[in-house]
DNA sequence: GGATATCTTCTTGTCATACAAGTTGCTTAT
DNA sequence: ATAAGCAACTTGTATGACAAGAAGATATCC
């Protein structure tokens, strides 16, 4: 239960407050504390972790900001309801890395499918032109023998933006980086990530569907594309879910 | 640019660190600062806001934890890439309250539709029984003349849980509370929120589809239900997006 | 005896100061 | 001009002090 203050072996030493915050977060997520429980007073935490009150307060401030804890001057600090958090964080079960990635992909399918459908319904001509440009750039990059990863990312980004829904855009972009993080974390699966020529067909299908204003076709093309890449890169077999 | 330290008129005084953090967050979101920009040193912020360094540090700790800022001992603090944030927060445009709610509903439609489809594909018998129980409880509550709001919530929750995807479950629940918050915030639209008898038909349709294991039907029933309630309660006309 | 008011103690919120650790940029010597 | 070294600046941590509010114990009044 005690934190090490200074471990010289660790290259990039994390700030103490962050260590404490992470520790407490795990404690709460592992249900050692339940929502509504009263939290130990700061003085006790100071002893427990062997750090100054300033550090404890910075850690608690972070967790209060994130919505994990609640406090009022004079009163005791309480563990907040998970529902009431202002920010959303993935709760990653370290025991099931591969499952995590699959679950994340399911989320991705739902959102990017919807984004593509929305793009087909209300994408502006400029947005659609932008998608086309990204498609061409990707084509070019691949025929040049490059990996095409950045162009691929740009294509998906342009696609998302054509949904014109700021929350969906923001969330999809956020999720991409979370997925990337998961991939980096679970290195036992090391895909070469080289885009096979086939994907370009899938990309084109998505573009065509959006351009023709057919939301269902756009959604299906996107889902097919994501299902295929999940299988190809990670061996994940996503459920069809009726589309 | 200066914060008031103590405003006796405000009932529930927010902590200074939280005020500072919110202020800085808005500054960053409104693009006054761009990712990669170096941030003013703490000493300068102390002067700027007229608070102690401890308060500034707690605010900065919160923002670093959220992923908005990055710092290294000795170096300058920088504004982090929005993409790299570990937690997701809604960026609410205060100018367009009604739009926000509509956009949130689009997100909700995408996710709950997917959840319903997944529930139809892989919902366990126990999960489906639970949905039925919630449906019955809602029926009972409504025939008793109650609002049925808590039962309605329970029904949707049971539905979501049957998707068996922890991230989707967590995110939908989180979004419900965000939507509720938005509704509270924009009080000019004050719906009476009383469930009309018609919704029960829609609920039953969702349940039947899931029970029969038909993901497409479950998805469509859910989307129809959400579209109708968005229109009924808030006058929001959601796009069809091909389903 | 029970409800109410007061007071003591505990806890969180804020401030001030000091120093350690590390970075940045300038100065200086080669 | 380049590189080493130094000085100033910035963030990280620790400590002590006090204010403000909450919670519980105590005393008071009916």
Automatic annotation (TrEMBL), chains A, B:
It holds the Pfam family GntR. One of its GO terms (molecular function) is DNA binding. Signal peptide: none annotated. Residues 14-82 form the HTH gntR-type domain. Keywords: DNA-binding, Transcription, Transcription regulation. SMART domains: FCD, HTH_GNTR. It comes from the Bacteria. This is Regulatory protein, gntR family.
């Amino acid at each position: 239960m005690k934190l090490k203050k200074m471990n010289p072996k660790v290259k990039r030493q994390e700030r103490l407050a962050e260590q404490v915050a992470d520790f407490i977060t795990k404690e709460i997520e592992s249900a050692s504390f339940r929502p509504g429980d009263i939290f130990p007073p700061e003085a006790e935490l100071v002893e427990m972790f062997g750090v100054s009150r300033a550090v404890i307060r910075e850690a608690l401030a972070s967790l209060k900001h994130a919505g994990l804890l609640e406090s009022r001057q004079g009163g005791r600090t309480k563990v907040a309801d998970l529902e009431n958090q202002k920010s959303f964080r993935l709760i990653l079960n370290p025991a099931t890395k591969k499952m995590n990635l699959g679950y994340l992909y399911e989320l991705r399918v739902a959102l990017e499918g919807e984004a593509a459908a929305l793009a087909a319904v209300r994408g502006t001509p400029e947005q659609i032109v932008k998608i086309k440009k990204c498609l061409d750039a990707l084509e070019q990059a691949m025929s040049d023998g490059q990996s095409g990863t950045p162009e691929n990312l740009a294509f998906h980004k342009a696609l998302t933006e054509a949904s014109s829904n700021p929350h969906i855009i923001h969330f999809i972009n956020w999720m991409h980086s979370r997925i990337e993080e998961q991939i980096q974390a679970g290195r036992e699966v090391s895909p070469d990530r080289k885009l096979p020529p086939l994907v370009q067909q899938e990309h084109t299908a998505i573009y065509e569907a959006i351009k023709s204003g057919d939301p269902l076709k756009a959604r299906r093309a996107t889902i097919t594309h994501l299902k295929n890449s999940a299988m190809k890169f990670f061996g994940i077999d996503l459920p069809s879910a009726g589309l």
